[in-house]
Every structure is written in structure tokens, then in C-alpha cells.
Amino acid sequence: MELTPLDIRNQKFSAKKLGGLDSEEVQAFLNQIATSFESLLVERADLLRTINNDKKTVEDYRRLEKSLTDAVYTMQRALDDIKVKAHQEADLIIAEAKVRAEKEVDAIRSQANNLRSEIDRLKQMRMGYFVKLRNLMRTQEDLLNSMENEE
Q: Which residue from 44, 55, 112, 138 puts its CA 20 to 30 A from 73's CA?
């Protein structure tokens, strides 16, 4: 039976004939108190061990939480850096594509201008051939006419 502080305060011992207390009752009560205190001390020691273990566990969880928080923060920074680099690379690729496209457009325009010039040159040559052919035909006609008049 566990003793309570109220049990200890209210404990009454039988009086002996000469006004003293029954030593056997006192000794039995002291043994009961000692047993209660021993079990309380054992329970207290167990509780202290549990508390210390729980404190260690809590500290381990706090360290783990800090590690996880740091890891999440580091990963977030890495992701942000990757995102920034990706945007920079995308902007660079777009800029390079625009430059290449402009060069290609300029090359195509230049080629088109060269082709137009070539077409104009060929048209002029054609006209020149027509003029020469017409002149040759007139000369031949004149020659035929002159030969016909000579006969």
C-alpha cells in the first residue's frame, strides 16, 4: 500500500502503559514509509531517465529539423539559381536566334537583289540580241533588195 502525505500526518500510535508509543507499531510504520520512499525513488529515477531520453530525442529531432530546414533552404536556393540560369540561357538562345534570323534575312535579301540584277542584265542582253538580230535582218533584207535590183 502506497502512503500519502495525509496518511503520514494522520497516523496515530497506541499509547503504552507508561505514556510511550508502541515501538513495534512505530517500526512497522517507518518500514512502510521507507518502502514507499524506495518505490518513489525508483519511480523518480525511471521518470528522470525517461525525461533525459525524451530530452535527447527532442534534441535529436530539433537537429534533424534544422538539418532538413537547411537542406530545404539550400535546395530552394539551388532551384532559384537553376531557374535564373535557365532564363539567362533561354534569353541568350533567343538573342542568338534573332541574330541568325536577321543574318539569314539579310542574306536572302542580298541574294534576291543579286537575282534581280541578273534578271535585269539578262533582259538587257536579250534586248541587245533583238536589236542586233533586227539590224542583221535589215542588213540581209537590204542586201537581198540590192541583189534583186542588180539583176
A: 55
pTM of the predicted protein model: 0.47
Inter-residue contact 3 to 36 (CB < 8 Å): yes
Over residues 82-137, the pLDDT tens digits come to 999 999 999 999 999 999 999 999 999 999 999 999 999 999 999 999 999 999 99
Judge whether 29 and 13 are in contact, CB under 8 Å: yes
13 with 24: CB under 8 angstroms? no
Query: Using H for helix, E for strand and C for coil, what is the string for 54-118?
Result: HHHHHHHHHHHHHHHHHHHHHHHHHHHHHHHHHHHHHHHHHHHHHHHHHHHHHHHHHHHHHHHHH
